[in-house]
Amino acid sequence: MKCRKLPNGNWECYEEGPRDPYTNKRNPIRKQAKSKTAAQIKVKESLKILESGIDGRTANRVFFQETAAEWFEVYAHSGVKKSTLRSRDSTVKLINRYIGDMLIGRITHQHIQDMLMDLHRKGASKSQITHVKVTANFVFVHAQKQRLRLDNPVNLVIMPKRRRTVEEIESVEIKEKYFEREELTTFLNAARDIGLIFDEEWFYLIAFTGMRAGEVCSLKWSDIDFEESRIRITKTMDSPGAVEEYELTPPKSHQSIRVVDIESDTLNLLRRLKVRQMENRLKYRKATDNYHDMNFVFCRPTTGYPYSAKFIYRRYLRICEKSGIGKRDGPHLLRHTHITMLTEAGIDLDTIMNRVGHSDAKTTKNIYTHVTKRMKRNAPNQLKIHYGEIFGKFFDA
């Protein structure tokens, strides 16, 4: 590398770069700085970019939103679910509002950091901010593959976090993530007595099988084996808009594909429901030519179309309101309650996770740990209840 001091006091360094693949001529690299060392560093950085094959000219003409659109086109054909695509598309639009009109080669980690900090200040949830960071990372990885960038600025950002207060930590206990026995009884009684059609059945099914709401909505009669007392779970429901626009998609993960054994009460509940559904189907198939006869366990009486998970969520909130239950997080609390039932019954953690379709679920493990600790604390009392008479006779002797 050759360097010389300029009349203005600055230093200029010069180095021959790699040959241009189109002209076969070498690309000369000249950089100036106030010090010789700084100028040398600039030359080395430029040389590194050229040797890596980065297309600097294109990178300085392409905007982030163009690269994001190109990435999304590839991502859309990678086999992801439509619901995931809608979520990613929404996130890309959000990111574009911050850096969409910036050149892909000029974006620094500070631009990404500022975006995340602004979302944090505006009250965005941790999951939303994480989604933004992950999506931006996807786009910049694509830019690296396209030789538009040497580095990925997302790798240098720090996720903003809000410190929880003592009051928040103490108020949000693990027991708020599931129903106690009395609460479950109150909720299911309300679903039966004051609920609408199917409220009793689908909430009972979630509580006593651990199924997700989307899995319940996608359930067909062919998935239920009445002879072997089991339910096969292979799909979930995606309902983005109108009732008729539903789509059956693969479940959340490979572990979600499973077979769940059911007890006699659940089986009898489903048998009674099937009789009602058959009578209803005969009635409305005769009344209309547009009846959607796809054999769904839970379908709208007059049309045959399935329900959405959002509908079950709204029904859950309504039953909670009517019954005075304050745990309004959603029907997944019934799923968590199923985990507590299995834990109290002495079922091991691996079996529980297989039954509810989890491979590594933090909430499942937390609930399991919480319940087992409670069981250990109650062990002496249970011992006294069952064997107190013997203890009494022994010490009285």
From TrEMBL:
Residues 174-381 form the Tyr recombinase domain. InterPro entries: CB, DNA_brk_join_enz, Integrase-like_cat_sf, Integrase_catalytic, Integrase_recombinase_N, Integrase_SAM-like_N, Tyrosine_recombinase_XerCD. Residues 62-144 form the Core-binding (CB) domain. GO terms for molecular function: DNA binding. It comes from the Bacteria. SUPFAM superfamilies: DNA breaking-rejoining enzymes. It holds the Pfam family Phage_int_SAM_3. Keywords: DNA integration, DNA recombination, DNA-binding. GO terms for biological process: DNA integration; DNA recombination. Belongs to the 'phage' integrase family. This is Site-specific recombinase XerD.
